[in-house]
Amino acid sequence: MIAVSTFAGKRVALFGLGGSGFVTTRALMAGGADVIAWDDNPSSVEKAAAENLPTGNLRDADWSAFDALVLAPGVPLTHPQPHWTVELAHKAGVEIIGDVELFFREMAVANRRAPVIAITGTNGKSTTTALIAHVLKSAGRDTQMGGNIGRAVLDLDPVSHTPANQAYVIECSSYQIDLAPNLNAHVGVLLNLTPDHLERHGTMENYAAIKERLVAASDLAVVGVDDPACSAIAKRIETAGTPVLRISDGSGAHADVSYRDGHLIETDNGTVARLDEIGSLRGAHNGQNAAAAYCACQAIGLSQHEIETGFRSFPGLAHRMEQVGRVGPVLFINDSKATNAEAAAPALSSFDKAYWIAGGLEKAGGIESLAPHFERVAKAYFIGEAAGHFAAQFSDTIPYEISGTVKDAVNHAFADAQKQAEAGNGAEQVVLLSPAAASFDQFPNFEIRGDAFKDCVAALPGFVGMEGSKS
């Protein structure tokens, strides 16, 4: 845990007693702060009190005595309206910050001796964060990964006595950036921007401006320039004096590092990594993620060889284009995290042909937007409540069936894929779960849906798991 020394002897209000709230309270106390923690959920307050954390109703507190309000990222700061603690803090002139801000203040106290890589973007930030951390670990770095992925940022280990061998890799959501006015990474990564969380930020302009702050305040900015908003940000912060490396998924934007035809290409040096043989980094979307990881890792001292070696052993994230395993030439991919059509498109576009399992609780628009990718489907297997509607939206020229359940879909898709493999002299076939729908009709969440898929696959005769897989 990183003790927050910057608030030693000061009085801090903390609101939001989820997992990171507990960690933040303990980190503040360890650093010598006087903390009062609260939550709108009485059970969360009771749990905190049972663990000997200092709790108190912040509605009744003397806000003039507080030096800061530390707010959980999910608590509304501005939209749709400020939370009541935010209004009380504003009225008393109390600064409002989050745990990521506390982390960066502690890094400043430590004279920024260990490099920090901070990653944000609408899509791909978790994969990129995990990829960067994996590459650094594989190269022997003491790597601390957290923030919006895995461990809470203040739950990471403090700066060691050998900081040159240490690195922090921090995923930052827009909510966290909004609460971190002094965010200052050695390398800041902005992957892409599409409309998201507008109920929290009000407008796309506000959302983009928050994301921009991460790269604008970094020593080096790595920016994906395949969308107009990020391209404009790259130009703007470069003009203001921030060094910028531009990355691209190969869709045509001029960049310093681009993905093309399975290769990662650096403008001045040609191919620097081959991704076409790395199953966990399939597709142009992962090409952009790998380009970001290449730039970030190289910036803090890794060699091209170390980076490419790390890429080759990357297992991927569970439920996101996760290679589950094989039965002979049939490869099974778990992309249960794809809970809408937009999220399923990268998976479908990553394979020439796939036996596609889709369905669940339908989102607005169903799978209509996926029509350009239907030609990549060998056969579709529709499950859950959306099955009938998905079938009605699907191609008239490609076979499909209403499977109903994940188990039936896996068994039927495997049988069909196996027949095709035999007809094609053992050519690889892919069974892909990429539901393009929420899970809540049959499963509590997408993780449990993905685990059900993996259990069904693992039960097939002859199943062999992937090395390093999370099945």
Characterise the protein shown here.
51% of the residues are buried. The protein has 15 helices and 20 strands. It is α/β, with parallel strands linked by helices. The protein has a 9-stranded mixed β-sheet with strand order 6-7-5-8-9-10-11-12-13, with helices on both faces. A 7-stranded mixed β-sheet has the order 18-17-16-19-15-14-20, sandwiched between helices. Strands 2-1-3-4 form a 4-stranded parallel β-sheet, sandwiched between helices. The two termini are 29 Å apart. The chain folds into 3 domains: 5-97, NAD(P)-binding Rossmann-like Domain (Rossmann fold, 3-Layer(aba) Sandwich); 102-312, UDP-N-acetylmuramoyl-L-alanine:D-glutamate ligase, CATH 3.40.1190; 322-465, Alpha-Beta Complex (Protein-Tyrosine Phosphatase, Chain A), CATH 3.90.190. The model has no long low-confidence stretch (mean pLDDT 94). Strand 12 and strand 13 form a beta hairpin.
Give a concise summary.
By secondary structure, the protein is an alpha/beta fold.
Tell me the total number of β-strands.
Answer: 20
CATH topology of the largest domain: UDP-N-acetylmuramoyl-L-alanine:D-glutamate ligase
Largest sheet: 9 strands, mixed
Low-confidence stretches: none
| CATH class placement of the largest domain | Alpha Beta
- From the N-terminal CA to the C-terminal CA, the straight-line distance is 29 Å
Strand content: 15-25%
Helix content: 25-40%
Please work out how many helical segments DSSP would assign.
15
Oligomer: single chain
**CATH H-level superfamily title of the largest domain:** Mur-like, catalytic domain
Mean residue pLDDT:
94
Q: Any idea how many domains?
A: 3
Going across the major beta sheet, what is the strand order? Answer: 6-7-5-8-9-10-11-12-13
Question: Over all CA atoms, what is the radius of gyration?
Answer: 24 Å
CATH architecture of the largest domain: 3-Layer(aba) Sandwich
Structural class: alpha/beta
Broad shape: globular
